[in-house]
Amino acid sequence: MTRNHEVISAFLDDEPFEPAALAEALADPAGRDLLIDFVLLRHLAQSEESAAVLTSAPSQPRNKPLYLVAAAAVIVALLGGYQIGQRQSTDEAGRPPTATRVVQADSVWQELGGVK
Amino acid sequence: MTDTETLFVFYQDRLRRYLSRASGEPELARDLTQEVFLRVSRVAVPVAPESQLAGWLFRIARNVVIDHHRQRKRRPEAPLEPADRATPASQETTSALNQALSTLPELDRDVFLMREMSGLTYDEIAKACELTPDAVRNRIHRARLQLREALAPSLRPLRVKQIQPNGRPRRVTP
Question: Looking at the domain covering B4-75+96-154, what would its CATH class be?
């Protein structure tokens, strides 16, 4: 059956075939069954493929956890930074700033001659 | 047609359909299609008739799939979650089809998928798989016979349904 019914595959695939060989193959009920099953098989493969592509297209599920982890890390970093900043700013608010330079002022007022 | 961009526009859908089935992971089809064109962009696209270009492109795609399977063997990961929007019945059929395809010899599966998923001619498949057109005809027929046998329970119910040209079969109402 495999050999002489190859013409059915060629016919189905729009490839060159001998009409007499096809007529012979289709005269056999098994050949007709084969043609129908090959059409159904094609239909099955193509419909399932399109369904799979359609359902997988909108999102990338395997990348989702990575995005979530990245978003969580950014939020934690922002909150942590805010907390640390808050703590430091409240600690320093009550204290005067530390002197970085001491300027010695003259103890006696001096009047400069010629200037009134 | 000689530049990568034109090839991409012309072949991306056909490649994606083939890669979706050949990899066994439809979710990866887009990534693998990009990988094919990444490899294409690294070499000069041959100036050749369309049938030879298709064969050349699908040979690269076939190598991408082979590399993908090798990497999967080396670094086994949990399989990706199947799309869960399909009905249980179609999930069963999908699983039966994938199972049946996985039992085929690699080359038979590839020639079958290039024909059914991407619509390549026997000549184009012959160039992609480095076979003769006669060998392609023989392998496609053999693959179909094997799949028919393996999928008999899934094919039987389809015989009483009406087949839509580009969609799922519809049950014939009396």
Answer: mainly alpha
Q: What sign has the CA pseudo-torsion A57, B166, A37, B159?
A: positive
ipTM exceeding cut-off 0.90 for this assembly: no
pLDDT tens column, A33-76: 999 999 999 988 887 655 554 444 443 444 555 667 777 777 87
The partner residue sitting opposite A37, judged by closest CB among B141, B148, B169, is B148
Strand partners, B162: B170
Burial (Cβ within 10 Å: 0-12, 13-18, ≥19) of residue A91: exposed
Per-domain residue ranges of chain B: 4-75+96-154
How far apart are the CA of A21 and the nearest CA of chain B, in angstroms?
15
The verdict on a CB contact (< 8 Å) between A9 and B137 is yes
| Backbone dihedral angles phi then psi of residue A110, each to the nearest 5 degrees | -115, 130
- Report pLDDT digits (tens) over B107-160: 999 999 999 999 999 999 999 999 999 999 999 999 999 999 999 988 888 888
Nearest-by-Cβ selection for A61 from B81, B140, B141: B81
B116·A34 Cβ contact <8 A: no
